[in-house]
Write a structure and sequence with these properties.
Keywords: Membrane, Transmembrane, Transmembrane helix. The chain has 17 helices and no strands. By secondary structure, it is mainly α. Among the domains are: 179 residues, no CATH class; 74 residues, no CATH class. Helix 5 crosses helix 12. The protein is elongated.
Length: 402
């Protein structure tokens, strides 16, 4: 047996693991994309931060909508990818996994929120800029006695005008509830000339959150330290959000690993990826080793190019599914003993069903080894494959295949 077999066999086996890992990861991406798993977990985490609690799927209402829903429908509405409905937390969507999936697909919530966008969105939601608030209000809801004062206040935005306007609206006997809320917001204009008092409205809004809400506890401390420095508040809140998302990412990776093992077992059984049988086939067949080593060099280069030119960290479910199918085709194109043969085939064929206890024991052991290998991920195996291919290319050339 030539010395090159010592490297060629591991190269061939690792190539199978690398291609199989691509199929596993793409299957996982497709399933998670269809189920909107990332966006659902992000929403759950945001509800925890705001102290909103879990989604109630028993009734459909728009009353007392959660802060998380207000954030998605207000400052962060632009991050949603064409959702068909408002992010009402208790929107009726049935029960069980199917109901949860339907709700996630209906809302089209984002799977990622930049930290600065989150921080600014939270501040805008809790304490909207006064000029924006005034500009969005419909003057038709105001009493006639306050309408002219409203327009003057919108133009000047002086503290004196704000105080006078707020008093006029609040004192009007025909003032609507919306007008009274406007009066409270306009009163904040009086603090424009007194920066040391400008944090009071934000602290008052934070007190409306549940006492044990992490966002209330953290943001209260940030506002107390930063005072009226909005940029500093945004920076510190964004840094805290990044730390929170890092912890969520760690939990997410551990959770995903369970799914990867399940998908790896599925691919292993579907293609009959028996690591022991593949090792024997590569060791005994020189021409097969030569073909697989050549394919390995091509696959390593292709993986490096695709990684360096990728501009998007995620794929659509359709793209992920297509890539999974292509990975399986690549594995079958290696002409290795993959898959299954029909009944009555030669028992020595690694694709045949074992006919004794010993054969089943070796088959199951080979499956388990392959399943664990595929769950490690394609980057790990392609990196190792590249190292072995480079090592082989710098050594003596092997004998030509017989």
């Amino acid at each position: 047996m030539p010395d090159s077999a010592i490297l060629d066999v591991p190269i061939g086996l690792i190539l199978v693991f690398a291609i199989g890992s691509v199929a596993v990861s793409r299957i996982n991406e497709a399933v998670f994309g269809i189920m909107s798993y990332r966006s659902r977990q992000l929403e759950v985490e945001l509800r925890r931060l705001f102290g909103d609690g879990p989604v109630d799927r028993t009734e459909e209402t728009t009353v007392d909508r959660s802060r998380t829903a207000q954030l998605f429908d207000g400052p962060l509405r632009g991050l949603r990818s064409g959702g068909q409905a408002n992010a009402v937390p208790d929107m009726k969507d049935g029960s069980g996994p199917i109901g949860v999936w339907r709700r996630a697909r209906h809302l089209r919530l984002p799977s990622y929120i930049p930290s600065v966008a989150f921080a600014r969105g939270v501040l805008d939601m809790l304490e909207p800029p006064v000029r924006v608030l005034l500009g969005r209000m419909d003057t038709a809801t105001l009493p006639d006695t306050a309408r002219d004062a409203y327009r003057d206040a919108h133009r000047s935005l002086t503290a004196t005008t704000a105080e006078a306007l707020a008093d006029a609206i609040a004192a009007a006997p025909s003032a609507s509830e919306e007008s009274r809320r406007l009066a409270t917001s306009i009163a904040g204009l009086a603090r424009l000339d007194h920066p040391e008092e400008s944090i009071e409205p934000l602290l008052d809004e934070l007190k409306k959150l549940p006492k044990d809400a992490p966002l209330r506890l953290v943001l209260t401390g940030i506002v107390t330290r930063a005072g009226h420095d909005r940029d500093r508040i945004v920076a510190e809140l964004a840094a805290w959000y990044d730390d929170t998302m890092d912890r969520l990412s760690g939990w997410y990776k551990r959770r995903v690993q369970r799914f990867l093992i399940a998908y790896a077992l599925l691919v292993t059984l579907l293609l009959n990826l028996d690591a022991i049988a593949l090792t024997n086939a590569l060791w005994q067949n020189r021409s097969l080793r030569a073909a697989v080593v050549e394919a390995a060099a091509t696959q390593v280069n292709s993986f490096a190019v695709s990684t360096s030119t990728s501009t998007s960290p995620t794929n659509t479910p359709e793209d992920a599914a297509n890539q999974a199918v292509q990975a399986i085709r690549d594995a079958r194109a290696l002409h290795l003993p993959l898959g299954w043969t029909g009944a009555g085939s030669d028992s020595a064929d690694p694709r045949a069903v074992p006919d004794d206890v010993g054969g089943w024991a070796l088959k199951i052991l080979g499956w388990l080894f392959t399943t664990l290998a595929l769950s490690l991920g394609a980057p790990f195996w392609f990196d190792l494959l590249g190292r072995l291919v480079n090592m082989r290319s710098t050594g003596p050339k092997p004998l030509p295949a017989a």
